[in-house]
Amino acid sequence: MSAQSNQPTWPRLVAFSAPALPLALLLIPLTTLLPTYYSQATSLSLQTIGFVFLAARLFDGVIDPVIGLASDRTPSRYGRRRSWMMAGALLAMLGCWFVFFPGADATAVTLTLSLTVLYAGWTMIAVPHYSWTAELSTDYAARAKIAGIRDAMYFLGVVVGAILIGVLTEIYKGIDARMLPALGYTGLVLLPLTVLASIAALREAPVAHKPQPVLADVRAAFGVLRDTPPFRRLVILFGCAHLGAAISNTLSFLYMQHVQESPQAVGTLVLVFFGATLLGLPLWVRLSYRYTKHRVCAICCIVLIAACAATFFTPRGHVTLYLALVAVAGLANGGALSLPNAITADVVDYDTLINGGDRAGLFFSLKLLVAKLCNALAVGVAFPVLGAFGFQATGANTDEALLALRVLYCCFPIPLLLVTVLLLWRFPLDPRRVGVVQRRIAARRSREALQPAAVQMASARP
Known about the structure:
Elements: H1 10-17, H2 20-32, H3 34-41, H4 46-73, H5 80-100, H6 108-135, H7 140-172, H8 179-201, H9 218-221, H10 224-227, H11 229-258, H12 266-291, H13 293-312, H14 319-355, H15 360-388, H16 399-411, H17 413-425, H18 431-460
Helix pairs in contact: 1-7, 1-8, 2-7, 2-8, 4-6, 4-15, 5-6, 5-8, 6-14, 6-15, 7-12, 7-14, 11-14, 11-15, 11-16, 11-17, 12-13, 12-14, 13-14, 13-16, 13-17, 14-18
């Protein structure tokens, strides 16, 4: 749909993007509430619960490229992305039932199986949905708008999830077993409704090329990092930006509690950050029409660097000033995380021209895998470093321990964001180059479409 008149309308794009809301909403209790609940309401030890959640997340990361490849290669009269999303919705609903209605006799085995089913269903929706987003338009600017709407729904899901948990915590005066059914029913209702709305809103584009046979081997799929330089560059810069964000997100609650000394404002912190993210997304998408996606994304990262530096020099106990800087970071966060998704769609076109095939599912699955690895690495880096400086999550801390927290939270992301800016500023795919790539793809497909007719005419000659 390269012509402007053929671009999807706003209502259809909102309906198409709807599954991102429950996908984000479910991640909030999975990462914040459920480990605490299982430690209090079951006989499982903290070590067992930690191992089970880690194992489930590792499984979730491993299956990303598998599902990406499978959704690229699936022939279906109902649409290759649609089919996986519908199957994923059913599996995620089953996982929701097991995870959020566990019973008092939950064991490590049942918890592992429940989380595995839920994460598998989540990925079976997310990877094809991201891939389908890249295939909705070949227009350079429209891709930024489409990615922005989808990510706005995702950030809205984060806000709704945080508010819902906050309200339930207030009603039940803390973490209570009665909270889980409310969250479970929310997922059971929203997952099928939003997936049905998405698959009904828009049609899938026809597949012009079959993926290369070598991609039947999952290990060979990682060759895209070698064969597609723009994607390799994108993965590096996205990994740097996401690792910096993951470090800050991991430590944000501890920073609010021990440095700003306002643990009661944690909920406000979440709402300010993601509320600002939602408000900032339309601005960055609009600017990307004029100044290119990679340059605008680089500017977002520069704003994040400034916010990190200013936060480091914010005096202790100045919560209002800190929240103002959080709002600035939130405004930039939307562009920094959303525009790379639109850039990935351009990289998929480049890969189609150079290597053949249609591998959007593979590309987005590898990008999701990088994000999940960064989230795991953030915990693996931040907590041991804090522990080495004697930091205590509960109780008083020395000035040295608090300085370590401030440096990790405010300063650690800065060099990572600087690398991201340098890689983004001269990113090789701008509107002109993307247009050249798409014209060459169209010309090649036209030639290939004429070849069968030429062969048929030649065979018909006496």
